Amino acid sequence: MPQKLVKTTIYYSIGEIVPRIISFLLLPILTKYLTADEYGIVSYTNSVMTFVFVIAALSLNTFVLRHYYSSKDENSRKELIGSVFLFIFGFNCVLIFLQMFFFPMLIDAFNVNIPFKPYFQLAILNNFFDVISIIPLVLYRVKENAKGFLILSLSRTLLQFLMVYVFVVIYNQGLLGSYYGRLVINIPFMFIYFYMIYKNSIFKINFKLIKEALHFTLPILPGSLAFLFVSLSDRIILERYISLNQLGVFSVAITLATVLNIVIQALYKTFEPILFKEYFNENFQETNLKLYKFYLLALFAGAFGTSIFSKEIFVIATSGAFREGYKLVPLFIVSVVIAGINTYLNILMIANKKQKMVSLVSIISAVFSVILNLILIPYYGCYGAIIASAVSFLFSNIIFQYHTVISKKYIITQLVLIVQIVLIPIVYDELFDLNIAANFVFKIIIFIFFIFLSFKLFNIDLNFVKLIFARNNIKEE
């Protein structure tokens, strides 16, 4: 079992790492061929579509993950997959028409500086196809076919990267090319998704099952939206107070900071099914602590690496006005770290059927975030948005820490490491003005020392993988 779990984690990690790497490979292209204003448009439409994505998915992927293992037989599982997929498809066919009708009016009402045609129009179409991919990818997860998950996810991502390059660079389509490149790949993949579901499900909707699914997921939905609002509302509010040029620089900084989601999502996709299956076993707390320590170690190591090398990455991957964005990364990464910890705690809350509390806390946090953004952004711009985001996620974290049971939470350790993640890169870049090669050497040494310190603080020895995955605490199904 240990070997299988490690192998599964590697597959999911590759599935998360490669798209992030590709987004960085696109950075030099997009920052060369797009202006900061145009990059701001991409970021803004992506932020809005992220909200729409959550509404369109209705958190039904969580229902499938939670109930697949408890289904009594294979036919029930096939019915679950088919019903949820077809319902999501039908619901989104209706939703896309509503968006095409109402979005132009909303853009005018809120005086958004980005036209509906063609930018939002193309973003809506791409979002529709992204939502359709949810259940086919979940199908691979519940069947514990991480390799299949990797192939499906990676092939689409690589083809989209290729087509964006073709449209933006070769055909000089500029900003529109980034939308067209995704769209021409999304369309054929939709037919692949339909074929997969048709072959692995009972291809009809059981409305009684959908009613049960919505009863489970609708309490989660407000919390998911609220979480996103804390994450993304700053860009929506910033658009009203800063130029699209500044928003573009801010967005590039966020792109680097959120590379940490490679760690978060890879481990989340691996650990979520395990925690759901093991939650009521008598050895759960021992397993939970091992997974949590490993999760924290990977999270903080990734955060420090991203923060300490942010200046060098910006020098290599960006140009012009974008390069100043590195100064924001160590500050913004605090929010990403806290949100990453919240992700793990949320799994425990939902496994214990406390999804209503998760939603309530997230909604309060979202309201808190909006208030802070509206107060701070007019005076402090991007820095105000960073402060509002960190404080809002911290509020949720405090509540989640109180309502989850982990035998040792390492809260003081987390605070110490967060301070180092922020201060060490800022102080180093202020004190030393070396060439890029020398900086890499010294920063690698600092990074290795940080990892060693994290091992000690989280009490993980060199055999930590065996300690986490061995002893059959996690049973193979």
- Discrete helix count: 20
Secondary-structure-based class equals mainly alpha
Number of strands: 0
Largest sheet: none
**How many angstroms separate the termini?**
10 Å
List SSEs in N-to-C order. Answer: HHHHHHHHHHHHHHHHHHHH
How many structural domains does the protein architecture include? 2
Strand content: under 5%
General form: globular
Rg over C-alpha atoms, rounded to the nearest angstrom:
22 Å
Described by its quaternary structure, the protein is: single chain
Description of the molecule:
With 477 residues, the chain is mainly alpha-helical. The protein folds into two domains: 60-217, no CATH class; 219-477, no CATH class. 82% of the residues lie in helices and 0% in strands. It contains 20 helices and no strands. Helix 6 packs antiparallel against helix 7 (146-170). The longest helix is centred in the N-terminal third of the chain and has 36 residues, at 74-109. The protein starts with a helix and ends in an 8-residue tail after the last helix. Mean pLDDT is 83; it is low at 467-477.
State the gist of this model.
This protein has 477 residues and is mainly α. The protein has helices at residues 2-33, 36-57, 60-68, 74-109, 116-132, 134-142, 146-170, 174-200, 207-217, 220-238, 244-257, 261-278, 284-308, 310-317, 329-351, 355-380, 382-403, 411-431, 436-457, 464-469. The protein folds into two domains: 60-217, no CATH class; 219-477, no CATH class.
Q: Can you lay out the helices and strands and say which pair or pack?
A:
Layout: H1 2-33, H2 36-57, H3 60-68, H4 74-109, H5 116-132, H6 134-142, H7 146-170, H8 174-200, H9 207-217, H10 220-238, H11 244-257, H12 261-278, H13 284-308, H14 310-317, H15 329-351, H16 355-380, H17 382-403, H18 411-431, H19 436-457, H20 464-469
Helix pairs in contact: 1-7, 1-12, 2-5, 2-10, 2-11, 3-4, 3-6, 3-9, 4-5, 4-9, 5-8, 6-7, 7-8, 10-16, 10-17, 11-15, 12-13, 12-15, 13-15, 13-18, 13-19, 15-17, 15-18, 16-17
